[in-house]
């Protein structure tokens, strides 16, 4: 059991918010934040499998490892924050609350006291709030470059509704995942029904940095993925599925070859250095209760 409890960002006390935002800015200043951004970019740019959908499936997305990869990534980020201040736990952004608003960009989330907004007269640059004028050096293979934090709220996209999230959690007929283990939405599984219709639109709704391979450059990435992880945790908890993941060596491409960094006994990429015991295997992150709990779940 863990003493870390993750809660909705709107329920943090003002002092807790200040501590959190200061710690995030400290990681930004000492270069650790950019290391996280680059990990995501590298995992996303690395193809997994070679067949038809190989160009879609990468080592962090559109495969069964999508949820464990981001769980490990968030645990690492939360640990980095707690090295600065042990009172911190990663909050989540429950965008199903905002989905009900007439005009979601007016949510308190996007005010100066929370994540700041975006400046429409300056191409969506974030020019207020705790992360104002953030700039990154991106280590993109073959294309290293600099970028500014940007948002471009798109009201043409609907944020996911609570009832849609609840339906996915309640459906105990869904397997965690199944062949061809990729981004093809012609088949149904828990992972794909969370990744495609619920996870993707939130990235696209926020827009700007959140739509790029370096999407963790916007700190809201961590809050969004924390909510995605909460939905997975809720499904695991509700149905007693804490160990649900395809058996060893089961996840293979269409030519029958084991997809690396993806099966339950594999270490995940790019944290697969065998000399470092902090590099967990997929199976080690399935039981989230060893690391943290969530204050509230969608479905009891
Ligand atoms: Cu994401």
Could you walk me through the main structural features you see in this protein, from its secondary elements to its overall organization?
The structure is a single chain. The chain is mainly alpha-helical. It has one domain: Di-copper center containing domain from catechol oxidase (di-copper center containing domain from catechol oxidase, Orthogonal Bundle). The chain has helices spanning 14-29, 32-45, 66-84, 95-98, 162-170, 190-206, 220-238; strands at 5-6, 135-138, 145-148, 293-294. Strands 1-4 form a two-stranded parallel ribbon. A two-stranded antiparallel ribbon has the order 2-3. The radius of gyration is 18 Å and the shape is globular. The model has no long low-confidence stretch (mean pLDDT 93). Residues 199, 203, 225 line the site of copper (II) ion.
List keywords for this structure.
binds copper (II) ion, single chain, globular, about 300 residues, about 35% helix, two-stranded antiparallel ribbon, di-copper center containing domain from catechol oxidase, 7 helices, two-stranded parallel ribbon, mainly alpha
C-alpha end-to-end distance: 19 Å
Output the radius of gyration: 18 Å
Query: What percentage of amino acids are in beta strands?
Result: under 5%
Q: How many beta strands in the DSSP annotation?
A: 4
Instruction: Using the alpha-carbon principal axes, give the shape.
Output: globular
Averaging pLDDT over every residue, what do you get?
Answer: 93
């Amino acid at each position: 059991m863990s003493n870390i409890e993750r809660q909705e960002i709107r329920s943090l006390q003002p002092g807790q918010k200040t501590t959190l935002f200061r710690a995030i800015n400290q990681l930004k200043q000492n270069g650790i934040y950019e290391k996280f951004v680059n990990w995501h970019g590298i995992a996303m740019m690395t193809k997994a499998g070679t067949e038809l959908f190989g160009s879609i499936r990468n080592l962090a997305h559109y495969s069964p490892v999508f949820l464990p990869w981001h769980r490990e990534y968030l645990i690492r980020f939360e640990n980095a924050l707690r090295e600065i201040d042990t009172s911190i736990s990663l909050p989540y952004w429950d965008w199903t609350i905002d989905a009900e608003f007439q005009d979601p960009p007016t949510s308190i989330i996007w005010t100066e006291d929370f994540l700041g907004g975006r400046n429409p007269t300056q191409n969506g640059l974030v020019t207020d709030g705790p992360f104002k004028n953030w700039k990154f050096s991106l280590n993109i293979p073959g294309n290293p470059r600099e970028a500014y934090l940007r948002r471009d709220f798109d009201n043409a996209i609907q944020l996911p509704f609570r009832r849609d999230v609840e339906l996915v959690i309640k459906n105990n007929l869904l397997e965690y995942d199944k062949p061809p283990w990729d981004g093809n939405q012609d088949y149904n599984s828990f992972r794909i029904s969370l990744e495609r219709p619920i996870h993707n639109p939130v990235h696209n709704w926020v827009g700007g940095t959140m739509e790029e391979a370096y999407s963790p450059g916007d700190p809201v990435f961590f809050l969004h993925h924390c909510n995605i992880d909460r939905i997975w945790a809720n499904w695991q908890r509700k149905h007693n599925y804490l160990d649900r993941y395809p058996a060893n060596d089961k996840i293979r491409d269409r030519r029958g070859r084991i997809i690396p960094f993806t099966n339950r006994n594999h270490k995940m990429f790019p944290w697969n250095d065998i000399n470092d015991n902090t590099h967990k295997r997929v199976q080690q992150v399935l039981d989230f209760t060893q690391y943290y709990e969530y204050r509230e779940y969608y479905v009891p």
